[in-house]
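hiii, so i know i said id send this last week but things got crazy w the move. better late than never?? heres the sequnce for the chain we talked about at the cafe, plus the structure i predicted for it. fair warning i was half asleep when i ran it
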Amino acid sequence: MNFIKFLLITFLYLAPVDIILAVEPDEVLTDLKLESRARDISANVRCVVCQNEPIDTSNSGVARDLRILIRERLLAGDSNKEVYKYLVDRYGNFILFKPPLTLSTAFLWFMPLLVFFLGVVILVGVLKKASPSNKSRFSNVSNDTKFSDSLENKKGKK
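okay and structure toks below
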């Protein structure tokens, strides 16, 4: 039993190492500033194979190629904006985790707000329908009282 616990603990400690080592040693730049910029860019670029994972932590071949491409562009003297523009021109806004707000992406940006407000409207409608307001209860009571008074008056006249 202790041996199983030991294996489990060892596995849990070593599991994150795979994520850290996604950038292979032959990809790392010797210039620390450029490497830092490359890591920043890679963290904001979506892997086109994994789709919800940044290329910085992805082990796919495409992610590796993109990491190398980013480093090559930085070595060629491109700014971060130029690297992002190159990637967007080649792969579209989908490759960015935070795509710019444009007419084509406005739906994606505002859809959560639209769904939230739609939910609030539906909730308010259901709550209004489920419990009638106090005003309508009192108006029904007064109408019933008027009706019973008119009946008593008619009985009294007879």
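btw Residues 127 and 139 are 20 Å apart (CA to CA). thought thatd interest u
miss u guys!!
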